[in-house]
Amino acid sequence: MEVKKDILWRVYLCYIAVVCLCLLILGKAFFIQQIQGQQWRNTSDSLHLRIVETVPERGTIYSEDGEMLSTSIPQFDIYIDFLADGLRNKSGKLFRKHVDSLSIGLSSLFKDVSAAEYKRMLQQGYKSKDRYFLLKKNIGFRQYQQLMTLPLVRLGRNNSGFITEVKSIRLNPYKLLAFRTIGLDRQFAQKIGLEQTYDTFLRGTSGKRLVRFIAGGACVPVEDYQIEPENGKDIITTIDVFTQEVAENALMKMMIQNEAEHGCAIVMETKTGKVKAVANLGRSADGSYYEDFNYAINPSEPGSTFKLATLMALLDDKKVNLNSIVNLNGGVWQVNGQTVFDSEKHGRANVTVQQAFELSSNVGMAKLAYAHYYNRPTDFINRLHEMRMDTLTGIDITGERNATIPKPGGRSWSKISPLWMAFGYNLQVTPLQTAVLYNAIANGGKMMKPYLVSAIANEGMVVKHYEPQVLKEQICSEATLPQLKMCLEGVCINGTARELFKNSPYKVAGKTGTALVANGSRGYVDHIYQSSFAGYFPANNPQYTCVVVIKNKPSALVFYGASVAGPVFKEIADRLYATEVSQASTVAVAKPLKVDSIAVKYTGNKRDLSYVFKNVSKNYFDIGGVNTEWASATATPDKIQLEDKLFERNQTPQLIGLNLKDAIYLCESVGLKVRIKGKGRVKQQSITAGQIFAKGQLINLELN
């Protein structure tokens, strides 16, 4: 019995100890949860809360005429917090009440799955108490606006649990237009073009946001803990959309016609150096063309367009004049064991220097270089340096490559290098460098720096303006300049481009070029020719300088500069002359002013109009009887009369005559999306007044 009592006592003692331990654990759990609960929850939050950067909206790139060339548009990721107070109150009464109508609305909006499937997804998320349930990714602004009007969602975040994550994607509205020049804003790769060069302005300053990390690595923003980002600034380029379209269309047409490998066209404003258009097209594997590379700033053998630099050096050094005689040897000349050919065996012998230039004679230029620079090659190289042919133009775009010009003592130099360089071989320059040289001749000898951005703007206000810069005040002597102009004009009248511009209503000064280029390790066996044309127009009052360079396919049937690059130049020049140059040259005859007795009509906000007219005119009459927001004023020399103006909400309002502020306010109040071009008052609207429109429809307003 004593043994039994002893065993029972031990068992009871152990039992009591276990019970006490359990009570202690329960008590501690109660203490931690109820007494210290808030403290530990705050500690948990501090471990799961983090400040993250919020990306600012990237600035927009505009053309000079106000068109968007690259802009950011918002995209939205939609999540649902199924533990939101509004969804859980009263055992989920609000969720059950709206889940059917919400499912129907989501199915109708996104048109991807049925309403029944949406209901199943929502109920599953609600049941699993998912705090970051992904509903939809990458929806556009219009769909987002419609989503915000759906049942439950429109009750707000706290009641609906709907969470919106906003991000931006980069869009080029004109697609191919100046694509390589405008560039790309790539998230995980290096930016290119103006997007890269002006990234510090465009990207803005990041903000900060407090987020809570939850299961799955997702994060939820914490309300009221946010520093707003500073959006990027806009840049206004020198690109003109019309000029760019003309250049690209003309280049594309010839590229397709000749099945060329790649090409570029550059249009510069002569007096300022503004680059108005840069078209770059390369052939893809399927035969289509797109802007795959910026050929305008990539060096290649220029061919005969470089003869302008050779002639300038000869004239400036007073080695020759335009009437000096050179023997062309019928178009074939052997020198130091090598043969120089003209593109055609013309049979000509003694001609003047000007005639040799107009005929684009390789033999003529090589002979002149041999006579005057063979024993003094550094004189020729120094002249090229003074013309900045071996120097970057400094254009405001990343990636410009420098020219390759051999120099005495270099690996690629030989005694006859100046001979080949004289007609554009054995060296490489970029089409842009060629354009800058020809533009200097057009601009009276003043070499302008080419540039692509004219201003930086912040919320419509210009904060930095870029002025034209002079690279060299005088590219050549005053005596040389008119001789060069005469030769360039002679090419288009008597020389290789005479047929091209025979019936032109305006004078052109330019030079054709055809160069046989190497095909990598295969050398010259594939007979690949690069066609080019460089010049300016109108020759008597230059407004634009244009350079076209096209690399043809192997053994192309048509490859001369006058036949391939020349027609592209001519189409660009014809279009620009017809639409801009000729109109600008028309001088309006001033007429004497007379008193205007016609009544002037003005529409705007009634309160604003009434305030102004009461203070400026004694003969002001308000004949409106309805208390409306808008009014139409009729002003004559005798009186100002104000009438009420009503707008039907489902019909397009009459916007012509309104100022921009009133026009935008009115459009947005009836549900129209606005795109604006110009400044001032509305002079034209794309949707006729009174026409029925769809909510969210785009209306284009042109201001005067």
How would a textbook summarize the main sheet?
A: 7 strands, mixed
Strand content: 15-25%
Percent of residues in helical segments?
Answer: 25-40%
Which topology of the largest domain does CATH recognise?
A: Beta-lactamase
Coarse morphology: elongated
**CATH architecture designation of the largest domain:** 3-Layer(aba) Sandwich
Low-confidence stretches: 586-599
Number of domains: 3
- Separation of the first and last Cα atoms: 116 Å
E-strand count: 29
Number of helical segments? 21
Overall mean pLDDT stands at 83
Question: Which CATH top level class of the largest domain fits?
Answer: Alpha Beta
CA radius of gyration is 37 Å
Report on this model:
The protein has three domains: 51-176 and 208-233; 241-583, DD-peptidase/beta-lactamase superfamily (Beta-lactamase, 3-Layer(aba) Sandwich), CATH 3.40.710; 600-703, Trypsin Inhibitor V, Chain A. It is 33% helix and 24% strand. It contains 21 helices and 29 strands. Strands 2, 3, 4, 5, 8, 17 and 18 form a seven-stranded mixed beta sheet that branches. Helix 12 runs parallel beside helix 14 (362-373) and helix 12 (307-316) packs antiparallel against helix 18. The termini are far apart. 36% of the residues are buried.
List the helices and strands and how they pair.
Layout lengths: L1 H34 L1 H12 E6 L6 E2 L5 E13 L4 H4 L4 H18 L4 H13 L5 E7 L1 H7 L9 H4 L1 E10 L7 H4 L10 H5 L1 H4 L4 E7 L5 E9 L6 E4 L3 H18 L3 E8 L5 E9 L5 E2 L16 H10 L8 E3 L4 E4 L2 E4 L8 E3 H6 L3 H12 L3 H10 L30 H6 L8 H12 L4 E2 L4 E6 L2 E5 L4 E3 L7 H14 L15 E9 L10 E10 L6 E8 L13 H20 L15 E6 H11 L3 E3 L7 E6 L4 E6 L14 H11 L2 E5 L4 E4 L12 E6 L1
Parallel strand pairs: 2-8, 24-26, 27-29
Antiparallel strand pairs: 1-6, 2-3, 3-4, 3-5, 6-7, 8-17, 9-10, 9-22, 10-11, 12-15, 13-14, 16-19, 17-18, 20-21, 21-22, 23-25, 25-26, 28-29
Helix pairs in contact: 4-5, 11-19, 12-14, 12-18
